[in-house]
Amino acid sequence: MTDLLTSALQPRSVAIIGASDNIHKIGGRPIYYMQRHGYQGAVYPINPAREEIQGHKSYASLAALPEVPDLALVVVGGDKTVAAVEECAARGVKSAVVIASGFGETGPEGLELQRHMVARARAAGMRLYGPNTQGLANFGSGAIAGFSTMFIEVPPQDGPIGIVSQSGGMSAMAYGLLRGRGLGVRHVHATGNEADVTVGELACAVAHDPEVRLLLLYLESIAHPEMLAAAAAHARERDLPIIAIKAGRSAGGQKAASSHTGSLANEDRTVDAFFRHHGIWRVRDPHEQARAAQAYLKGWRPEGRRIVVISNSGASCVMGADAAEDNGLALAELSRETQAAVASKLPGFATASNPIDITAALLSNSGLFGDVLPAVAQDPAADLFFINIPVAGAGYDVQAFARDAAAFEAATGKPVAVAAWQESVAGPFRDQGIATFPNEGEALGVLAQVAGHTALMRRPRAAWPALPAVRLPAGARGFLNEADSLALLARHGVPTAPMRLCRSAQEAREAFDAIGAPAVVKACSAEVPHKSEHGLVALGVQTREQAGELFERFDARMAAMGVARDGVIVAATRKGRHEFMVGARIDPVFGPVVVVGDGGKNVEALKDCAVLLPPFSQDEVAQALRTLRIAPLLDGVRGDPPLDVQALADIAVTVGTVIAGARGTIASVDLNPVMVGAAGDGAVVVDALVECAPAPAGGSY
Amino acid sequence: MTDLLTSALQPRSVAIIGASDNIHKIGGRPIYYMQRHGYQGAVYPINPAREEIQGHKSYASLAALPEVPDLALVVVGGDKTVAAVEECAARGVKSAVVIASGFGETGPEGLELQRHMVARARAAGMRLYGPNTQGLANFGSGAIAGFSTMFIEVPPQDGPIGIVSQSGGMSAMAYGLLRGRGLGVRHVHATGNEADVTVGELACAVAHDPEVRLLLLYLESIAHPEMLAAAAAHARERDLPIIAIKAGRSAGGQKAASSHTGSLANEDRTVDAFFRHHGIWRVRDPHEQARAAQAYLKGWRPEGRRIVVISNSGASCVMGADAAEDNGLALAELSRETQAAVASKLPGFATASNPIDITAALLSNSGLFGDVLPAVAQDPAADLFFINIPVAGAGYDVQAFARDAAAFEAATGKPVAVAAWQESVAGPFRDQGIATFPNEGEALGVLAQVAGHTALMRRPRAAWPALPAVRLPAGARGFLNEADSLALLARHGVPTAPMRLCRSAQEAREAFDAIGAPAVVKACSAEVPHKSEHGLVALGVQTREQAGELFERFDARMAAMGVARDGVIVAATRKGRHEFMVGARIDPVFGPVVVVGDGGKNVEALKDCAVLLPPFSQDEVAQALRTLRIAPLLDGVRGDPPLDVQALADIAVTVGTVIAGARGTIASVDLNPVMVGAAGDGAVVVDALVECAPAPAGGSY
Description:
The structure is a homodimer.
Chain A: H1 3-9, E1 13-17, H2 29-36, E2 42-46, E3 52-53, E4 56-57, E5 71-74, H3 79-91, E6 95-98, H4 108-123, E7 127-129, E8 135-138, E9 143-146, H5 150-153, E10 161-165, H6 168-180, E11 185-190, H7 199-207, E12 214-219, H8 225-237, E13 242-246, H9 251-261, H10 268-277, E14 281-283, H11 286-297, E15 306-311, H12 314-326, E16 330-331, H13 336-345, E17 356-357, H14 368-377, E18 384-388, H15 398-412, E19 416-419, H16 423-431, E20 435-437, H17 440-458, H18 482-491, E21 499-502, H19 505-515, E22 519-524, E23 537-541, H20 544-561, E24 567-572, E25 578-587, E26 591-598, H21 603-606, E27 609-612, H22 618-625, H23 645-661, E28 666-676, E29 683-685, E30 688-692
Parallel strand pairs in A: 1-2, 1-5, 5-6, 6-7, 10-11, 10-12, 12-13, 13-14, 15-16, 15-17, 15-18, 18-19, 19-20
Antiparallel strand pairs in A: 3-4, 8-9, 21-24, 22-23, 22-24, 25-26, 25-28, 26-27, 28-29, 28-30
Helix pairs in contact in A: 3-4, 6-11, 7-8, 11-17, 12-17, 13-14, 14-15, 15-16, 19-20, 22-23
């Protein structure tokens, strides 16, 4: 655990400023919880109106304590909150948890107060949790600096799961759902407004707890991704899966998040890319976190996505197959031997291919599961198993089914999930430790999640190459013109169409002679980024005279528009089989971001693109391209050859290194279209726009 | 209820062929169930080995009965099944339910036996249910000609829901889930292999039961859509919602369905279109059917999709807003007055805009719900209400919250859904009759479903216009060539680009003179439907000489290819702002089907299209276009004007009447591209391909 946070998660002493004898008050709960969960350190209630609180001596003030506590829990509200924090800082308290609301989430005035508290804390080397938080709870150490009602509703039990959440409500909900599934939870921490300590930093601390085998996060904004990245890196090293909710996916949700924890909006596709980049699996709500937990704790790390579906209902075979496809799982193709072995166990009208319908004959032969499962167990085509029991009851030996399934799972070591909505059926399977779900959608969703997450965590991770030294033209600001943009990219190895920037009609004619027909002639002005909308692009230019005339016409038009006349470009025509786009920008939170997708003039409207955070490999670009709606075109349609994905991927990787190498001087890069040819024919950029950062900074990422 | 099926659903007498004294055997269950559920007709067990069965006199044979029973339940298997059905038919039994498996679902031999049974039944005017079925159950009349174990597991209660299913397992599962929610169910019918009576026909019968207020279907194939359409039409008339599962959505699922009930595959997008066309809502599984049932039974028919989200947790406000967007619901914009009224009830740091965060202050003020709800009740901006309570417990007066919510729902008459995963919270809300769900995804999913389904059921329904008399050229077969295809469509009012079919270079030059530059020149051969792949299309032809030369070149190339040389087309160039496609085909099950979507050469690969069943209105086409991935282009991008959706919709409507008017002589129509201009500029078809039906039939749809 990181040393800085030890004082909060494993404090030797805890002061409660505003302590109460009533265990249902915020100032009473933590004392009650610490007693109940065996906290071994010193507990110091502070309340000048009392001699004793819940069996502990009560103190009049922080100054009256016999020692400086590691952790102070500030329960008092209003003006007293800031005063208490100031006193903690002055006394040398290591960590303070501030419960009160009414700070950054309410507007500028509250934010100012919040900043003031943090400034005082930082100046004294004290860490601050909250404000506007439900607090911290470590059931390993018994240090419960929080007041969640849920710990009364659902009795805690120490276990291998850590929860770190901006929202107290969501930490309590995840905790309650996990406990309801019989799973133990060690850490339940809420960060509230994150004035100082963020989910990322606490996640880092919890990921270092060797007892934790699954880490669940809830975030409303990501302000400091580097801590979260560090947590994820450490988690991957020790094979600790992280499942995160990032709420505020929608515009309405982001607005609500701003009122809730004063959160700033993140661009949601970039959040997705960030999580993918760091091997974090994203879900929508605590239900999705809780329902997958048991599967992770079993240590399932499937090799692939090929599934065998088994049911006693033909309809459930059908729906299981449908749900497998919904979840991107493939039905395993069982070998001829496996099918023969299965068929020998089943009645004649049953189906021995996958999905395997053992039919209602299960009613008369309770041994069917036990007969059929071993027959498929050894087939190497199967990565995952799913047993769907939509109907059973009187006459069915469900206990035997459950024992057979458990023996099967133990023998294969492969994931086995069961769907059964009747408690009389689900219960016996659960009792055998089988991952059991109410329906095929959830069961297959979890299997697909574990398979996908395993692949994500194990994916080879690209390292930053030596970054190029990217220099903008002297005095550049705003947009570079097209010629400068293309030249900059070409310098760093991006393939661009041959072109010349011409300053006169004569130069245009000479350029045409050098470049040949058909040529493209286009005006070049940093002030006209969208040339074609102004009629400043001519395609298919066939003669040197045309080139000269176009120079005159475009030059005159730029003059009439009153924009910078940087010249006229004469360029070679380059066609591909499809137009793509590659873009890059500096995200204010996440730094360099690369976008690759369908190109052309409708990019903004259709948004068929994938987001990647550098560094990434060519393979990752190729995988990302597979998520596009135009992905079927990559393989070639109607007899066309496949596209040169490798060449496009090279460009995307290079653009990532260029924007990173610019070290803050480039705000964005937009290559559109990138003409991609058939495999082996390469890709070439025919238009580019580089945007300089407003105030060039010297930082790096 | 349709008379034909009355003998099965309300029989005056029931014979059980293969009756048993053991209530856990298939031949014992129905007798037990009929006694238990007060069946008033005569029950005739047939079993030659017994004198009495479950208190009824047992008969040696059908012939020995004192009367011909309305309904015979055939429980005997193997060879005896067919013999029993033959005897029933011979004796004049009105309906027979055949339980045994081993017929159409096993292959050609079983299918032959099945056909034989149906033929005998039909010849005698007897209706057949099954084979391979779990049977029928009407808890209104007590006539239970089925053996589902689920009726023992979960005690029946008559109620307003009907279930009709191909699968016995799925009917039992839907039944069990509904009963588990405390809802009463009247009809639970399974059709199995549907040798004679289908889900559609039974649905029609059940839709005529005036007590039924919600109808749930499970289908693995739709062989006779007209019965289902009739059921849906009657249901719409009496405002009876139908929620259907059509399993076998995936290739794997369709294969499994074929093994299960011998089902033939339906094209899944056409199934979607069929359901939409008839106002049937499609879901994936019985859980989705059951979870929405209460909302329908409340009679919710919301006017719109604008929702108010209220929670005691800021995070749940955020996630509620996200889930609203996931489900296509809009956050209602509350009036200034409403917000002021809400704000006056809440603590200062709470949020009075939508979503409304009443905060953890609810803990100290249990009246907050009751205070806030009336403040929003009268805002006309709200169609739907959602209360999200992720955490409550000791100290919260949940009973009061539930009472306040129920009073609110009663006062507004508008849908109110609650999400609460803690049983201690959900219970009191459920007890007040509030629709309560475990999480925001399900709650908002159901609200969105009811809103969407209401709109679908209430949508004005297009009527067939007088169909045109569509005549193919004499002797036409296979594909018509492009000129004939375009001419046929133009005759029926589809706008096509001006063109001439030329038989000589001289004709081509004259055509160019008439049509003007730039022209398009393309080879015309019924045997070369994809001309451009063979280099047989020239765009931008500028001179009459070029047109003549192209004639010679294309004619020579067709000769070299050895294909029919129907001539060379000289056509006017027509451009639009976007290329669309309109297609039509005769589906073997559903009849005429129209497809409209993104055009160009990648249509097959990208499949960005919508399916419509005629007759449909221009408005329905416009709505369907909104579901395309390219929908954002309809409004115009980057300053472009919106597209002429009306003109495109006109073409789609016309194509639907043309293929219907062809009365089976046209197999398919493919218009691609259809050039669509800016609003008011129209749309024009520049290429067309009409395919003749293999053996022209004279039928109509």
